[in-house]
Amino acid sequence: MRDVANLAGVSSQTVSRVLSGKTNVSDSTKHRVLQAVEALGYRPNRLAASLASGESSLVGVLRVGHLSYGRAQSYIHFERIQNSNGLYVVSASVDYDDRDDWKRGLDYLQSIRLRALVIMSQNVTIAQYLNPLLRQPTVLAMNEADASCKLARVELEQLQSMEKLLAHLYSLGCRRIVHISPEHNEIDANLRCQAYLDFCEVHDLEPFVLKVPDWSSESGTYAAQQLSTYTFDAISAANDWIALGVSTKLFNCYGMLAGRDYALTGYDDTDFAPYVSPALTTVRQDYTQLAISISAQIDSLLSDKKPGCTILENTLVIRESTLNYQAAR
């Protein structure tokens, strides 16, 4: 900073005021300082600046386990929002069910002076475990967190969305509905599977849950092999990737076409969902709004407001993978 000050012909304090965005500097002085910064390639030490000012421009994100399509989208949107506000995101990725790794990740993030922290997880036990260790405003981005959780939260509603999806299949006359679900103990998979089981009980349907290794299209192809000897008229896949895998395998190996021989639904409304053939009926989750709501919760906490919970509604998107089946009946 001293070199910048010497080149610009000002004091180090003036350089600091310019770089921190203070307005009590003339335009000509600001211009000279910025020219000197560019000429010298100077980059301020943000940690030192935050220690000096008592404020931080860093927001931490603790990412627990694999980032699904939706959470990856939300993370990107969240980072852009913070950047637009002059803030920067620093993250740590930790294992899904390793508590020691959770603590290591949190220790790393808290070793940096943070403005706030976001925890993105599908493991419901993490909030209770980490809560005593938290030292900054924290927002939990997880669906259906433990009722005892005292952290600020943002959730994407799951149970009612799944019920609407299944009610749509039921309205088409489907009575032998298979649900394909990852065997991982993740909250989204558990909630969607529970909604399916509840729906079957209410409507006196025989439930058939087919467990697969994960959320991938490869898991969908595995499911197709298991379904080759089972009679069904609809498949409810826990996400769009599984739906893509199972429908492709059923057609290529068994000649069964989604939308003609059975109805098919996914979940997430991924980028490819409108463009596969037939286009996929699914549930659209607003990942941009999720990121906006996380940012709003952070701002609320920094304004000394009590932790709140924002629950975002989803949208049922009906396309040819079910509409064609209705027409074919």
Automatic annotation (TrEMBL):
Its source organism is Mobiluncus mulieris ATCC 35239
Q: Please give the CDD domains that the UniProt record associates with this protein.
A: HTH_LacI
Does DNA-binding appear among the keywords? yes
Pfam families listed in its UniProt record: LacI, Peripla_BP_3
Record keywords: DNA-binding, Transcription, Transcription regulation
PANTHER family in the cross-refs: HTH-TYPE TRANSCRIPTIONAL REGULATOR GALS (PTHR30146:SF109), LACI-RELATED TRANSCRIPTIONAL REPRESSOR (PTHR30146)
Q: What is this protein called?
A: Transcriptional regulator, LacI family
Q: Give GO MF terms, alphabetically.
A: DNA-binding transcription factor activity; transcription cis-regulatory region binding
**Residues covered by the HTH lacI-type domain:** 1-53
